[in-house]
Amino acid sequence: MNKTVSVYLKISRQASCFTTPSVTKVARSKDPYKVLVSCILSLRTKDKTTIEASRRLFKVAATPSGMVKLSSARLAKLIYPVGFYRTKSRVLLGISRKIIDEYKGKVPGRIDDLLEFKGVGRKTANLVLGLGFGIPAICVDTHVHRISNRLGWVKTKNPEETEVALSKIIPRKYWIGLNTDLVAFGQNLCKPVLPLCSDCFVRHTCKRTNVKVSR
């Protein structure tokens, strides 16, 4: 076992004590469409708001065919107060229509196809592949990018570079769980400002890159 994996497993163990991220909770349904929708809702939105909005929406529409029956205004009302709820309502309707028209009502399981959807970037596409389909993929959001650099695992400038760098040092069997663990870890302990280093399981091996003050 290499050093990076050893550190990751310690982080995973500590992260398991924290609240599960919202999209991971939705992913327990094993439904790629619900994962995709929840991921869109989660952008610039707190987890509590995301999970509540997802549950509200899925009670009314949990499939592409059900979604396109809603007006943009009704959909916006259902997902409020997620960030940019009006824009997201239009994005979700567009995605749902494209899934029906071009993919026979099923979310595609290829990253190139997912990236063709308006409003879907690599972060969302990789999360859908991993959590929705069980296909190994590294989802790099702000937490994964920050923590990977802070630990000294990578030296990258953006999430795309981080994804490539992590794929070279993290075995594929850990790719799907990496985002869930680092998001929980980043939300609760390894925060952007004033991280709680004194409580961290890997504080003795962390390079603490760009950390000026901690608790």
Walkthrough of the structure:
It is a single chain. By secondary structure, this protein is mainly α. The chain has twelve helices and no strands.
Compact description:
This protein has 215 residues and is mostly helical. Helices cover 59% and strands 0% of the residues. It has helices at 3-15, 22-27, 32-42, 47-60, 64-67, 72-79, 85-103, 111-114, 122-133, 142-151, 159-169, 175-188.
Which terms summarize this structure?
mainly alpha; single chain; about 60% helix; about 220 residues
Topology (SSEs and partners):
Blueprint: H1 3-15, H2 22-27, H3 32-42, H4 47-60, H5 64-67, H6 72-79, H7 85-103, H8 111-114, H9 122-133, H10 142-151, H11 159-169, H12 175-188
Helix pairs in contact: 1-12, 3-4, 3-9, 6-7, 10-11
Shape: globular
Q: What's the number of helices?
A: 12
Structural category:
mainly alpha
Rg result: 18 Å
Largest sheet: none
What is the percent of helical residues? 55-70%
Spell out the helices and strands N to C.
Answer: HHHHHHHHHHHH
Average of per-residue pLDDT values: 97
The N- and C-terminal alpha carbons lie at a distance of 30 Å
What is the percentage of strand-forming residues?
under 5%
The low-pLDDT segments are: none
> Oligomeric state of the chains?
single chain
Strand runs, count: 0
